[in-house]
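Problem 3 from the worked examples.
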Amino acid sequence: MNPLKSPKQKVADKAEAILAGAMQEFMTCGYAAASMDRIAIAARVSKPTLYSYFQGKEGLFTALIQQMSQSDRLLDEERFLQHPIRESLKLIAIDFLDKFSGEQPLLTLFRLIIGESGRFPDLAQTFVRNFEKPIIEKMSYLFAHHPDLNVADPEITARFFIGNMVHYAIVQEILNGRDILPMERDRFVDGSIDLIIGGN
């Protein structure tokens, strides 16, 4: 660790290392079998230090979800409202699908949540509360206020748009349906936008 870093930066770096260790452990063992001891080893911190940053596995899992949520750079009101609606929606859709592709951390986390949701419904609710809900609320606002649009129910439109993206990611990436239900991503995105904006 760089001795010239501020105490605040050192704390942030240690939290980042702990979250990286937790992600590695969750990916390898799942939520139920994940061990705080192994997370501490992976993060190269002591167990008391681990607990001083995060109270337990649920706290770590919540922090990972929040970390993923903070990267939604395209859900920016000013950028969305000042650009043509088709351009804005395409940027958001592609950014969203990029996060749910290949071995991206968000896809891994989502796969884990789906697999553990039966035994740990609180984890699934944590994901909905910290990731899905803010996106739906922001998209609802954007659909309600974009000057090129006049939708009857902005929340339904937002749920339709985001739900479409989630379904595509689940079928293509999590269920490995690319060969069974092939669909080129740009065609899917453009078609989804057409359903919302029509001739706009």
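Problem 4, a separate protein:
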Amino acid sequence: MSNDPTTPVPASAPASVPVPDSPFRPEPGDRDLAPQFVLPLVVRLERAAPPARTDALETAARAVLVMLGDARSTGDGAWARAMRDWQDARIRKVVRRARGAEWRRAEALPGITVTGRSAEVRVFPPVPLDGWPKDLARLQVSGTDLDDPEPPADADPAAPVLWLNPGLDMSAGKAMAQAGHGAQLAWWELSDGERAAWREAGFPLSVRTADPARWEGLTRSGLPVVRDAGFTEIAPGSCTVVADHPALRSVPGRAPGA
């Protein structure tokens, strides 16, 4: 799947000039000196019934949002300290796969299972980069191939869309982590009221591959853009996802992304 310390760029900063001390800046900074944490995600992958690729990507993105919006992740919640430590350093997400007894052991650990049409993804509170729980550390990261039985339907333009770079060939795990980054960037850009409305609606979103003719325009639209750090699979600085949330399209000076 993906051990994925990527470098999304907040929409409030020019794509080529990361904001100072951002958790997503490509250059080393103070955040690299902090203890490093990772957000684990586990996708259920039974041999007889693997999930569709697009549904797995969308479910992983929603899982990240569910974790960010959960009461246990904020204030004095049980996971709040881990979430703060994770976001004070580099933002890392790792997607692993499980089936059968592996999945049952993962479900027994504190976390949240998010279900799509065919996909199940469990997200866990952040853990130290070198301190994974035993039942998660033993799960496989690589070797997963997912396909869509049919081409996905067109995205609903009234709902958030996470646009994937059409020029990149990413594994399912890599793309799931990238979709999660894009969803997180959109979440950070929204007001408290906009976040609440998205959460109450169940975090509707689509993940789609952008039309090649529109991709460059999307990356220059002012919407949040994920740029990869280049540690796995693709070249550093590659734009992987544009997070197109309807509320962000209406920000003054920001061109529509869809």
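Solution to problem 4. The first helix runs from residue 53 to 69. The chain has eight helices and eleven strands.
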